[in-house]
């Protein structure tokens, strides 16, 4: 299948491009390279540097590359920034996505895989989180993702668009061979931050809150390997054959790890000491967030190949050790 991967030079997108090739599909990448890296995409993959909201350019790509399905990863995803600059998030995450969908409909492309987030649930009513829980985002980032989910429902009903929306938990890790990994200009994810502290690239790692009602007092989160995420996106393809079909799936391991456990695991994997300081809780940090992903496992045959967070960190360490400065674009 010819698959347009929007945001295919980013962290999750680039791993999905690799997995598409492994599965025998033909990926085509569209990325504006604000956060993505050209080096994350192999030279044999067709690459277009442009904005997803450029309808004329997107339309030409859809036509020239004979695209059959679109995978969309190109969102702004910094929660704090979304609170400070909501206009930026609504313009990119909602308005530009609507333009992308309009271009797809104009060119008869009606299969869509959407990168959503567990942030649509806000502060969940219970754990583990299942897909039927009430969605009530507590920040503009999560709200923009939920807004797109609601648009997709309407498009499925009105235009016969078939789609799957995957609600991620904490994407982590790197390609098994260490060739691509996580390289964000402003890093906010815990595992690469702890690895940076172990490598001496940052002075300390700060634990925000040590008095939560969890086994060791620190927050619990669900870390899922980026390649496991990618395989789920591909596993849904067959289900999108029926016009107007819609699917929503949580993607996580269901095995939460605390901040202290992540720090200890990084020290075990790297053999390096992580300098730690303890601080107060951050506003809006729930004690625990983790998924029930049984729906994806049952309906898609999705198998989690990295259920253990230490194995995830081992792949991340291979990437960071081999590329201490990340991608050199």
Write the layout of secondary structure elements.
Blueprint: E1 2-6, H1 11-22, E2 26-30, E3 46-48, H2 55-64, E4 69-72, H3 79-84, H4 86-106, E5 111-117, H5 140-159, E6 162-168, E7 170-172, H6 190-198, E8 205-208, E9 220-221, E10 223-225, H7 226-235, E11 246-251, E12 257-258, H8 259-270, E13 276-279, E14 288-289, H9 294-300, H10 309-322
Parallel strand pairs: 1-2, 1-4, 2-3, 4-5, 5-6, 6-11, 7-10, 8-13, 9-14
Antiparallel strand pairs: 9-12
Outline the structure in words.
With 329 residues, the protein is an alpha/beta fold. It has helices at residues 11-22, 55-64, 79-84, 86-106, 140-159, 190-198, 226-235, 259-270, 294-300, 309-322; strands at 2-6, 26-30, 46-48, 69-72, 111-117, 162-168, 170-172, 205-208, 220-221, 223-225, 246-251, 257-258, 276-279, 288-289. It folds into 2 domains: 2-172 and 224-251, Rossmann fold (3-Layer(aba) Sandwich), CATH 3.40.50; 190-222 and 254-298 and 305-322, UDP-galactose 4-epimerase, domain 1, CATH 3.90.25.10. The strands form 4 sheets. A 7-stranded parallel beta sheet has the order 3-2-1-4-5-6-11, with helices on both faces. The chain is globular.
């Amino acid at each position: 299948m010819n698959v347009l991967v929007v945001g295919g030079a980013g962290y999750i997108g680039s791993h999905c491009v690799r997995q598409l090739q492994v599965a025998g599909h033909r990926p085509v990448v569209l990325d504006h390279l604000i956060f993505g890296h050209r080096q994350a995409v192999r030279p044999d993959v067709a690459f277009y540097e442009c904005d997803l909201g450029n309808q004329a350019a997107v339309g030409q790509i859809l036509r020239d590359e004979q695209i059959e399905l679109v995978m969309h990863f190109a969102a702004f995803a910094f929660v704090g920034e979304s609170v400070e600059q909501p206009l930026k998030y609504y313009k990119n995450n909602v308005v530009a996505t609507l333009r992308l969908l309009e271009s797809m409909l104009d060119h008869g492309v009606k299969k869509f895989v959407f990168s959503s987030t567990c942030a649509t649930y806000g502060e969940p009513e219970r754990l583990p989180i299942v897909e039927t829980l009430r969605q009530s985002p507590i920040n503009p980032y999560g709200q923009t993702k939920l807004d797109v989910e609601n648009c997709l429902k309407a498009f499925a009903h009105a235009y016969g668009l078939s789609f799957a929306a995957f609600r991620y938990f904490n994407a982590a890790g790197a390609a098994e061979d260490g060739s691509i990994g996580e390289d964000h200009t402003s890093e906010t994810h815990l595992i690469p931050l702890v690895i940076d502290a172990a490598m001496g690239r940052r002075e300390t790692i700060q634990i925000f809150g040590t008095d939560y009602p969890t086994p060791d007092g620190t927050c619990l989160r669900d870390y899922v390997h980026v390649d496991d995420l990618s395989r789920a996106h591909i596993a849904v393809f067959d289900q999108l054959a029926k016009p107007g079909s819609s699917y929503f799936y949580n993607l996580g391991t269901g095995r939460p790890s605390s901040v202290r456990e992540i720090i200890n695991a990084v020290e075990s994997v790297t053999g390096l000491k992580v300098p730690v300081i303890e601080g107060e809780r951050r506003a809006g940090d729930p004690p625990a967030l983790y998924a029930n992903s049984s729906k994806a496992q049952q309906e898609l045959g999705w198998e989690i190949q990295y259920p253990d967070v230490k194995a995830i960190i081992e792949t991340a360490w291979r990437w960071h050790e081999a590329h201490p400065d990340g991608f050199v674009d």
